[in-house]
UniProtKB/TrEMBL annotation:
Residues 1-138 form the Nucleoside diphosphate kinase-like domain. Belongs to the NDK family. This is nucleoside-diphosphate kinase. It is an enzyme of class 2 (transferase). Its cofactor is Mg(2+). Its EC number is 2.7.4.6. It holds the Pfam family NDK. It comes from Fonticula alba. HAMAP family: NDP_kinase. The lineage of its organism: Eukaryota, Rotosphaerida, Fonticulaceae, Fonticula. CDD domains: NDPk_I. SUPFAM superfamilies: Nucleoside diphosphate kinase, NDK. GO terms for molecular function: nucleoside diphosphate kinase activity.
Length: 150
């Protein structure tokens, strides 16, 4: 099963949107494998966003991401990475469709409340970075009512 790393950013935490974001992934049918409130170091965030290090917005991004605690989580399910990105909406909330998390709850690209892994490979790297101790594995009875048996 696919796994994705979803993170409520400092503005999402401050604005009381943790529950709303958890709710959407839960109601979709994805399985929660890890969840933690944390205050990451600048170094940790630079590692998370290392592919963006050369971008002009990188210093501002790191400042934003270290402005308060974040909530990291791992969600598991069929197509969790691609579907998770769709649930988040476009990077710039101005381009995010209503009904998506960013489309419904924020306005500016530099305060877009939530992170989601963009590929399966990056998801696995991010899960290893944020949850080096590992994540939970368990059976969820709901799965019998979510996935077709073939
Ligand atoms: N970002 C920004 N300005 C930009 C592009 C991105 O401040 O012009 C921030 C924004 O918070 C975004 C994050 O940098 O979520 C990571 O950028 P990425 O391109 O990976 O977008 P995402 O994967 O988060 O949609
Ligand atoms: Mg990204």
């Amino acid at each position: 099963m696919e796994r994705t790393y979803i993170m409520v950013k400092p503005d999402g935490v401050q604005r009381g949107l943790v529950g709303e974001i958890v709710k959407r992934f839960e109601q979709k049918g994805f399985k929660l494998a890890a969840l933690r409130l944390m205050t990451p170091t600048e170094e940790h965030l630079k590692q998370h966003y290392k592919d963006l290090a050369e971008k002009p917005f990188f210093p501002g991004l790191i400042k934003y991401m270290t402005s308060g605690p974040v909530v990291g989580m791992v969600w598991v399910g069929k197509g969790a990475v691609t579907t998770g990105r769709k649930m988040l909406g476009a990077t710039n909330p101005a381009d995010s469709a209503p009904g998506t998390i960013r489309g419904d709850f924020c306005i500016e690209v530099g305060m877009n409340i939530c992170h989601g892994s963009d590929t399966v490979e990056n998801a696995e790297a991010e899960i290893a970075l944020w949850f080096p101790e590992g994540v939970a594995t368990y059976e969820k009875s709901e799965d019998a009512w979510l996935y077709e048996k073939r």
